Amino acid sequence: MPSSHDFKKDKRNNSIIININGKYFSRKNAKISVFDSGFILGDGCWDGIRLHNNKLLFLKDHIRRLYEDAKAIGIKIPKTKNELTKMLYQTVIKNKMKTDVHIRVIISRGTKSTPYQDPSFTISLPTIVIIPEYKKPDEKLYSKGLILKTVSIMRGHKKVQDPKINSLSKLNCILACIEAKKKNADEALMFDINGNIATNNSTHFFYVKNNIIHTSTGEYCVKGITRQNIIKLCKKHNIKIKQRNFKLRDVLNADEAFVTGTFANIIPVRKINKKKFIIKKSNLVFYLKDLYLQKINKLAPLKK
Predict the structure, then answer these.
(1) Whole-angstrom Cα distance, residue 89 to residue 106?
(2) Per-residue pLDDT at 77 exceeds 80
(3) Which domains are assigned to the chain?
């Protein structure tokens, strides 16, 4: 099954250099301890960042989110924001990368003395891993669109596991993804605890009705950087957008639907459950996509 993260295979990824705590390792030699909190417990947080024309897009926003999430789970990243920014760019330079690169930066609580959840058993500083890969979205994503299916796995209450935090503990989303794949879908469309549509398992959800764009309040989804940029673009270009609670029946009565994410920016949806959408160039999603591409090309113009 395809997914919202389908990309063109690139042989250069076989020889990427990965940054672990400031030291560089080849892909095959990049390793962390089996006692690392991230491996044992999924204890940490992460972020995904795009390199476009030698520039890490919306980097301050991504760094801010990463540090906020780390603080929320009681991890003090052992680098300042400026130092981590430098590490990211140094890793890109080390790999001689220019564009169409997706970077995963991972922070774990650190190495444990024994496999136990109590943070006091951590015996090292937090682990920092930076993985840069050549990942150009498959163009078929935009022409074919995605199939979404609603699932029984919900986005939970913040007192159970805060859905706004981009944590390494992705079990909630993984279980939703597994259920969606069993239904022959590309992604899961997830409800919140109140029966409203919240988000997808790895992207953010929007729908269009009568040229008005609707998205959730954001209470039950990760603080999406691309999502927020789309909201800003709508407001700047006088496209009506509403952030509100809505039900599945509203979605199934929509004219269009699309998803957003750091990797592939904006992808149209062609089907939700049994509801089919017609994907055509005149759709609002493609106008928004053009606006977004104009924005990032202005931020990071191609140098001749």
Answers:
(1) 15
(2) yes
(3) 11-134 (3.30.470.10), 140-299 (3.20.10.10)
